[in-house]
Amino acid sequence: MSELFGKNKKELMKEIIKKIHRGEDVKKLKEEFKDSLKGLTPKAIAEIEEELIREGMDREEIQKFCSLHLALMEEELAKEETLTEPGHPIYILMTEHQLLLKNAQEFYQILLEDKIDEKLEEIIHHFKDSESHYLREENVLFPYLEKHGITQPPAIMWMEHDKIREIKKAIYQLWEKKDINLLKEKAKELFEMLNSHFYKENKILFPTALNVITKEEWSEIKKGFNEIGYCCFLPEEIVKPEEIKEEEKKISETLPINFETGAFSLDELENLLNTLPFDITFVDKNDTVRYFNQSKERIFLRTKAVLGRKVQQCHPPKSIHIVERILNDFKNRKRDVAEFWISHKGRLVHIRYFAVRNKDGEYLGCIEVTQDITEIKKIEGEKRIYDY
Prior knowledge:
The chain has 388 residues and is α+β, with helices and mostly antiparallel strands. It folds into three domains: 78 residues; 140 residues, nmb1532 protein domain like (Four Helix Bundle (Hemerythrin (Met), subunit A), Up-down Bundle), CATH 1.20.120; 128 residues, PAS domain (Beta-Lactamase, 2-Layer Sandwich), CATH 3.30.450. Helices cover 53% and strands 12% of the residues. Helix 1 crosses helix 3, helix 3 packs across helix 10 and helix 6 packs antiparallel against helix 10. The longest helix has 33 residues. It is globular and about 80 Å long. The protein starts with 8 loop residues before the first helix and ends in a 16-residue tail after the last strand.
């Protein structure tokens, strides 16, 4: 073991994590290296996981052993305090953590009494409402962390978000059946999952975010949070849309954009794209999200924080390999279209990806088109213009 002591603390930590993954006892490792690990920061821990994945360790393996990594440093993490003022995005998320965990605990305790209580229905409503919490992290906070080179910890947290969603979905189904015994199991699983997940975010992800994200960026993040909305409680100092800087809202009504078959002003073009009866997102040839329209009834959430983000990071980790495959097929001219259809909130949604090419066939990027086709599927016969 002596060869480890000549390395810096980050390298030492990486070696210890590898030992944990090989099955060595955490308590023994913690005792053996307790002096060497003193002073490790949450940012350093995030960077260590980042480097391990770049060196070939599987992201799912990191996620599986993440709790053991934290157990190794629980004394150091206990000293770590995440201090922010009310209204700050991190303060909001941490307050929601407390309330969501309280709801999950109360839900489980009521079920242990073997009764169907009206309170259970209310808590299930809170579970459903809490989706905005995870969407704010995935669509606003995570992109800013990625801009500062912190990519793998957010991806690991997103994997856990999807696990939380799976557990909650099972709870909703069991609630419909009033299956108390299985509900108890899932309620316990949800509480334990939230307890572990929130601890990781509070102790590693959030302190890291506070360390790397600038004051100006936190202001932008707050606006992104406000656009999505909140659960559990209403934060202080909500920024209303009309308070956004006037210059950000103004679009020139005179500058023309000329095409081969006509022209638009910027104002006309933007509003035309926003009036389309479907959602579009453009990803350039470097896989960077460059634009999305703001249709009136957008199906899947988009925030301005996504602009400049790699499209792979906009998808849950479990589907990234499919996104890569579609893009590679487009770039290699194997195909020009990929389409899927799914059931989403009781609606039938058609999702299509189109390769965008110039006249010479050069790949310029990809456009995603998402449309609710529920009512279209019901159309029969004819309705002519004369029937207007």
